[in-house]
Amino acid sequence: MSKYASLLFSPEEYHEIGPFRFPVYHDLVPGEAKGIEAIGRKQSKSTFRSLKLAKRIAQDKKITTKEAIELLGSSDEENQELLYDYASELEELQRDSVGAVEQQIAFVTLFMQYRGEAKLLGSPGTRTKDWQKLSDWTEADTEAIPGRLMEKIFELVTWERDGWPKSEGNAPEPEEPS
Amino acid sequence: MAKVGGKRPGARRAELSPEQILKDAEDTLRAPLADWDAVYFRVRSSAIGGDFTPERFLRTPISTIRWLLRQIDDHDCARANTHSVTAARLTGVLIQVAHGFSGSKRPAPKIQPREFLPFPDWKPEAATADGPDAPTKFILSELVRTRQVPLHVYAALAASASDSA
């Protein structure tokens, strides 16, 4: 690929959130897809195991699977006592599960690493003129940004993955290069 | 969070039965992981991927990578076919000669060199569909509309445009 190929493939549209900007592709990039796939698999594994456990509880307690799932999610003291028999399995489930916030942090971190750009601080009190890629962005950096900002970035991730909301009057799907 | 136009697993999950969720999770776990290393190797080892760094690859939209792969496949097929044209023609001549030596009284078989190419049925992905292209059709229809050409001339022009396409 020649050095001028970047002119053909450079993004035409950016979305700015706070001090950051993100190229808009209406698609994911392999780096993000790889990470999101890994998180998805981890979640599926956790769902699979929790439903297997619910099925086992349903068989043992002679209740329906749906009731067993409700039992697993309830905080009733009476129900909790029933679950003591499955304490070790539940502990394991708790350890391996991916929480909503954890997932949000992971997605936003990936997005920042593969798409995020910012004008970093140059000499004291000034910002550099050029947008710079944030390839070395870490989960700790994501945890340090305000929650509202993180939510907006996460929203952008879901738009890029699942499609942009039509009501916002965004540009139509980009055409493939020709 | 604003509603997005598409599949939100969380929203869908509430409507699904436990069995369906279990099946979905099982399917996800059984599905093979996308082999991005192999895709990168394919692009990098192609004629256009010489300086396509891993960093750049990981930041390129997937739709662009799909387009690149189609172009690479097209290019590889075209190159393989081009490199085999002489061999294909020679094969045709050999078959004709062999038929001549066989003493058969039947007419010699018609040999199409294309049949001996590695990808005989290959057409470039970007090849236009049969028939005149949109600008040609537009010009022709304008000529007819303004009565600058008679209908039979239009028909002849349209037919020759189809043939050349």
Q: In brief, what are we looking at here?
A:
With 178 residues, chain A is of the alpha+beta class.
Largest interface: A-B, 47 and 41 residues
Domains of chain B (count): 2
Average of pLDDT of chain B:
77
- End-to-end separation of chain A in angstroms reads 16 Å
Q: Helical content of chain A, roughly?
A: 55-70%
Order of helices and strands of chain A: HEEHHHHHEEHH
From the N-terminal CA to the C-terminal CA of chain B, the straight-line distance is: 51 Å
What does the largest sheet of chain B look like? none
Please tag this protein with its features.
heterodimer; A: 178 residues; 2 domains; 8 helices; 56% helix; B: 165 residues; mainly alpha
Structural commentary:
The complex is a heterodimer of chains A (178) and B (165). Chain A has 178 residues and is α+β, with helices and mostly antiparallel strands. Chain A folds into two domains: 90 residues, no CATH class; 60 residues, no CATH class. Helices cover 56% and strands 7% of the residues of chain A. Chain A contains eight helices and four strands, in the order αββαααααββαα. In chain A, strand 1 and strand 2 form a beta hairpin. In chain A, helix 2 packs across helix 3, helix 2 runs antiparallel to helix 5 and helix 6 crosses helix 8. Chain A is elongated and about 65 Å long. Chain A starts with a helix and ends in a 16-residue tail after the last helix. Chain B has 165 residues and is mostly helical. Chain B folds into two domains: 90 residues, no CATH class; 38 residues. Chain B is 59% helix and 0% strand. Chain B has eight helices and no strands. In chain B, helix 7 runs antiparallel to helix 8. Chain B is extended and about 70 Å long. The N terminus of chain B is likely disordered. The chains are: A alpha+beta (178), B mainly alpha (165). The interface between A and B is large, with 47 and 41 residues.
